[in-house]
Amino acid sequence: MAEIISRRFNAIQVQFSKEEEGPHYLFYRKHIGKDDDLKTPSDRTLFVANVPPYCNESCLLRLFGEFGEIREIHREETNALLAKDADKTHVERPGVNQTYSVAFIVFANFKNLEGAITRLKDVDVLKADTSTFKTGLAKWCSAYAASRPNPERMQKAVDAFMKKYDEDKQKEEELAKEQEGVPDEDGWITVSKKTKKKVVQRTEKKQQWLKAREARKNKQKQHLNFYTFQIKQSKRDHIADLRRKFEEDKQKIAVMKATRRFKPY
Predict the structure, then answer these.
(1) 222 or 240: which carries more pLDDT confidence?
(2) Engineering a disulfide at 12: which of 2, 60, 123, 133 sits with its beta carbon 3.0 to 4.6 angstroms away?
(3) How are beta strands 45-51 and 101-107 bridged, if at all?
(4) Is the pTM of this model over 0.70?
(5) CA distance linking residue 164 with residue 247, whole number of Å
(6) 8 A C-beta contact, residue 26 and residue 48
(7) For residue 10, how many other CB atoms are within 10 A of its CB?
């Protein structure tokens, strides 16, 4: 029997197959729309929500057809309806009809609509093929699997991208090699990071030669002023040398004055 669940909707319990364990509820009320909507006029249209994808038009006709002639039945996905209310664009996916929807049942006159709202009762099993439609956990698993990329297709896309990348890289290297040492329009020469210095071979003979050369360099080095007292002594010697040079300069100036050759200005 139909139940009133709120001031706006009524609910009726239906069963689409004998194998269903739990009940399913359809929610219905009088359609509230625009007065000038010829497709779904408010005075003759019944709005039904929570319609599963396996509930076809024949099921809706068996459920509501006993109250009078039904002119049309319009189905619309719930996602599309919400997008329309929010002024958003709903993306249609051809061949995909696995979602719950709403139905607009247009009766021939308003008396049929009032009878459906007030006298709707429970019905026998609405025979519908539920095996071809996925719902619940099976639907979520299928949607997740469909959203994952194909490994083979992804591998082909990666290979194509890397092939193009290698080709572009090779072209850049060839172009840089051609332009190396060639001045541009302003006379500038592009300098690359590449070096022409040869790599030292890591053979035993070569390593011995490098060690001997390093030893000769170390032998030529002199560790001067290694200790603190040596550093202090070098500073004293430097100051004494400066004083000696100063005294020599004073004597030269005195000799120049005596010979009248000193002209400071």
Answers:
(1) 240
(2) 2
(3) antiparallel
(4) no
(5) 81
(6) yes
(7) 18
Here the tokens at position 233 are 């002594």
Q: Which two tokens stand for residue 229?
A: 């007292």
What lies within 8 Å, CB to CB, of 117 at 6+ separation is 10, 28, 29, 30, 46
Closest by Cα among 47, 162, 68 to 115: 68
What tokens were used for 12? 């009726």
Q: Which of 23, 19, 33, 21 is nearest to 11 (CA)?
A: 23
The DSSP bridge pattern shows strands 24-30 and 10-14 to be antiparallel
In terms of Cβ atoms closer than 10 Å to its own Cβ (0-12, 13-18, 19+), residue 167 is exposed
Amino acid (1-letter code) at residue 248: E
Torsion of CA 166, 169, 173, 175, to 10 degrees: 120
User: What's the per-residue H, E or C state across the chain?
Assistant: CCEECCCCCEEEEECCCCCCCCCEEEEEEECCCCCCCCCCCCCCEEEEEEECCCCCHHHHHHHHHHHCCEEEEEEEEHHHHHHHHCCCCCCCCCCCCCCCEEEEEEECCHHHHHHHHHHCCCCCCCCCCCCCCCCHHHHHHHHHHHHCCCHHHHHHHHHHHHHHHHHHHHHHHHHHHHHCCCECCCCCECCCCCCCCCCCCCCHHHHHHHHHHHHHHHHHCCCCCCCHHHHHHHHHHHHHHHHHHHHHHHHHHHHHHHCCCCCCC
Using one digit for the tens of pLDDT, what is the confidence trace for 53-96? Answer: 888 888 888 888 888 888 889 888 765 554 455 444 444 443 34
pLDDT tens per residue across span 130-141: 666 776 777 788
Residue whose entry in the numeric block shows the structure tokens 């100051």 = 239
Q: Which of 120, 125, 128 is nearest to 58 (CA)?
A: 128
